[in-house]
Every structure is written in structure tokens, then in C-alpha cells.
Amino acid sequence: MTTVSRRGFTAAALAAAAGCARSRRAGIRIRDVGLGYEDFRYRTPIKFGGVALDRVTLLNVNCIVEGRDGRAAMGFGSMPLGNVWSFPSRVLSYEDTLGAMKALAERIAKITGGYGETGHPIDIHVALEPEYLKAGEEVAKERKLAEPIPKLCALVAASPFDAAIHDAFGKLHGRNCYLTYGPDLMPHDLGRYLGPEFRGEHLDRYVLKKATPRMPLYHLVGALDPITEADVKQRINDGLPETLPEWVKHNGLTHLKIKLNGDDLKWDVERVLSVERAAAATHYSLDFNERCPNVDYLLAFLRSLRERASRAFDCVQYVEQPTARDLKAHRENVMHEAAKLKPVVIDESLTGLESLLLAREMGYTGAALKACKGQSQAVLMAAAAQKYKMFLCVQDLTCPGASLVHSAGLAAHIPGVAAIEANARQYVPAANQGWEKKFPGVFVVQDGVMDTSGLDGPGLSATA
Length: 464
What we know:
It contains 17 helices and twelve strands. By secondary structure, the chain is α/β, with parallel strands linked by helices. Strand 1 and strand 2 form a beta hairpin. Helix 3 crosses helix 4, helix 3 crosses helix 5 and helix 8 runs parallel beside helix 9. The chain is globular.
């Protein structure tokens, strides 16, 4: 047992108190918030949960923050308003849900701009998230929506605000965001956010100080995407690849994410077999977009795939959220047996610590981190998942431009994340224009790898 003298204990206590005082002085106050939108058409549709999507609206946020010493910095955040994914509805139209998200974003801007306390970006987000959720309830009521705005939708709408605050905080201190999570700038340990078993642990132990320099890219094979030339109904002829073998050759792909339907076992198995014949990748991830009716469907699929194509089965790295996102309403869909075959990852269901703990209880063995749920939540959930020894991946929301830089930076700074998903180059390359020159390694993929070595600039790096 180590013994500490009274003098040594006092010195350590004083040092800790001094560090806490420094981190409190390092806090920021929000001075101004502004937002704007950009609209883009997809070059080819992508299918989300049975809905074909052909457009995107980006929410862009600028935020000016001020330190206690009067210095100021501007941060920037951007994220697609993924209403089809975050606010799926059978009764509301695309325009209804997009309009609700825009109205909520404008409410969030007022709430964020009116916050008068000083603190670390994560503390600011923790304080404001309940207000954001309350605003979502108010917007739904005011617009007389037939369905409430989901928490996931509110997180997506708030994410570029959170990103802009983290970005500004890093720039104010001349550091990359992932160097602002230690006790010198962040006054509270993880016990404050994740419970007593994290007491005494600081967030910096769960992030990398330097970005992983190279990461394999997960290319999306959407349910509507042609695999071979025979699948092409009409060529786009815009100079980009249009079949899977063309994409494999163009980017040197080794990792493929395959969208599956979840309601037609034969089609789902054949889809993977078709991809395997066309590309024979080294890694696959399988995404059912919550459409499997139950875990038995998933088990039948995995067993059938193993029987018919053992190499493809062996190359499956993980399975994303196979069944309904409302875990509390579907406690019967436990994943223990499926997770013995492959890691099963919580995605749409992951909206906070409570949902992560419930997913673990139900047999999920992995967690998908997404920049679109907010930088604050992403890094906190990354810490919790690492503590619980869960499989980790970082996933996309067809993020272009600054939002892709943000997502790539997240993937490159979280230990254990082996690859990054990025598909805006496939579906909405117009939104990437101008970014290729600033971050060629991120936006120009070669040998199946994204070069993430340039993502250690100030803030979130997106305006570095």
C-alpha cells in the first residue's frame, strides 16, 4: 500500500485545486450565434428505411465565444438535416419534418445565443440539451404535428451548434478539440456525466491526442445502387463510377457497407452474395436500418450467409441496428445469440447513456458514434463504450464538406475505431466542392484509405 505524507497530500490537493481553478478560468461564454442553410440534390438516390432520398439541406452554424480574459474566437459547425433518418414518419411528409427541423434549429439558435453561463463546451451542451428537447416539444405543438419530434431529431438539429462551440473553444486556446478534454481545461471528471464508476477519470484518457493518420474507408452499397453493369437502367454519365466494380477500381476499396431490406430474407442474402461476387472485399458491415421484424430474422440471415458464402460471412465486421430503435418497447429483441456470431451495434437507438446501458443489457456489443448526434455526446459515449469494452465504429449521415471533416476527425481520435464511413462523394459530391483542395486526403480516397493526418488543426480542423 502506498503511503502519502501529510505534506505530500496537501501539495497534491493544492495542485488539484489549482488545476480545477485554471480549468474554470478557461471556460467560455457564448456571445453570438448565427445559422444558414444550403440545399443540394443528390446525383443518385439513397434509400433510408424504405424511403428513397434525393436531396439534402445542410444546417451551417457560426458561433462567437468569449473567454474570461475578453479574447474571442469564432467556431463553425455544419450538419445535414437528416430528417428522413432522424424523424421517420408514415403520416408526415418530407416537407413537414424538414420544416419542423428548421423551426427547431432556429429555436435552438435563440436558446444557445441566450445562454449566459461560462463553462466548457460539454458542460454548456449538458446544460442546454434539456432546453433543446423542450423546444422540440413546443415546435411540434405549435406546428400541430401529428407526431412528436424525436429526441434523435433534436440531437441532429443541435449538433452543428455543439460543433461550433467546440470548434470555437479549441481555437480560443490554440488547440485541437481533442486536446481540450483534460483537467487543465475541463473542470469536471467523467463521474459528473457518466456516473460514479467514472469518478476520477477524465475524458482525455479516452481520446487520442493525435489523429490516426490513415483509416480504411467504408463505401456504401445502397439498396438502390447498381452492382454490375446489368443493373444500370440509365447511366448518369457525370464522370464518376456507377457500378460497384467501377467504384472499387476508382478508390481501391477494401471495406463495403451493404444496405439490406430486413423484410425479404432471400433478397438480403442474395444481395450480399452479389456484392461478394462483384467485389470480394476484405471487410463488410451490414445495415438493416431497423427493418428486421425480430432477432430470429437476423439469426436466420447470418446462418444462411455462413452456409452459402463462408468467406463473405468471415469478412463481416459488424451488424448495425437490425431491429426497431425503440428498445424499451421491444425488449424481446435481445441480441445475445446474434452477438455471438458478429458484433451487433446500436445506432439509431443511441441517444444517451440510458440507451447505451439498456442496449448492453439487451445483448448489443457495439456502439455507432455519429457527429450528427453532437460532439459532446459522441465523445462521452465513446468513453462509456470503451469502459464497457464495446465494439466502436463511426458512421456517416452522408456528411459533406465541414461535416465530413468533423466526422473523420471523430473517427481518427477515438481509440479502437478501425475504419470510417463516408458516402457524400457517392451521392452528393457537389456539396464537397472546394473542400478537396483544403483536405485532399479526406475527400480524395486512394487505395481504399482516407488520409486523416491533417485533422489535428485548431478546433475541429474544418476551417483550419
